[in-house]
């Protein structure tokens, strides 16, 4: 069975007719040719496919495309303008928050989404008092980013980049 889906990706409306079993990641990469989200594990374990979906971070390999007809998606490429990188992208460059770069688009989108969660006051597993607003600490950042793996092991620099990006 097929369905026609319209999504807005990085500010541009895109339409595709796909099998109803197609994931959002495959819709983005194979049908509308958006390269920023990467296919890593295809099981929701690595975070390479993370994007902002209607403002929230989502691993697109676990979402069916038909569930998100009409959605607004922002990829790492859509965070910046043509002339100016997003503060989180700038921080990843400044702090050397990547090595091979494969996970970086997912890391950047997850970091932006994670900071929005912190700002909204959502507690995490390591939040000491779930009744009060969580603070942006290295422990909070590491816990909230634990769904994004870096095979190169650039975690120390990723945390530093997120701290810098959040400060901007």
UniProtKB/TrEMBL annotation:
Coiled coil: none annotated. The keyword Metal-binding applies. Keywords: Iron, Metal-binding, Oxidoreductase. It comes from the Bacteria. Residues 3-79 form the 2Fe-2S ferredoxin-type domain. The keyword Oxidoreductase applies. Pfam families: Fer2 (PF00111), Fer2_2 (PF01799). This is 2Fe-2S iron-sulfur cluster-binding protein. It comes from Streptomyces cuspidosporus. The lineage of its organism: Bacteria, Bacillati, Actinomycetota, Actinomycetes, Kitasatosporales.
């Amino acid at each position: 069975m097929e369905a026609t889906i319209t999504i807005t990706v990085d500010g541009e409306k895109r339409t595709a007719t796909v099998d109803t079993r197609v994931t959002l990641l495959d819709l983005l990469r194979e049908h509308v040719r958006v390269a920023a989200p990467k296919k890593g594990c295809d099981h929701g374990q690595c975070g390479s496919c993370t994007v902002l979906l209607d403002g929230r971070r989502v691993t697109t390999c676990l979402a069916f495309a038909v569930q998100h007809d009409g959605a607004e998606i922002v990829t790492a490429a859509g965070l910046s303008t043509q002339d100016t990188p997003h503060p989180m992208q700038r921080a990843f460059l400044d702090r050397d928050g990547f090595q091979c770069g494969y996970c970086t688009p997912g890391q950047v989108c997850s970091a932006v989404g994670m900071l929005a969660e912190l700002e909204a006051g959502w507690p995490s597993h390591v939040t000491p008092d779930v009744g009060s607003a969580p603070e942006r600490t290295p422990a909070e950042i590491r816990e909230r980013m634990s769904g994004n793996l870096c095979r190169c092991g650039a975690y120390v620099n990723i945390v530093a980049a997120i701290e810098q990006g959040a400060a901007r």
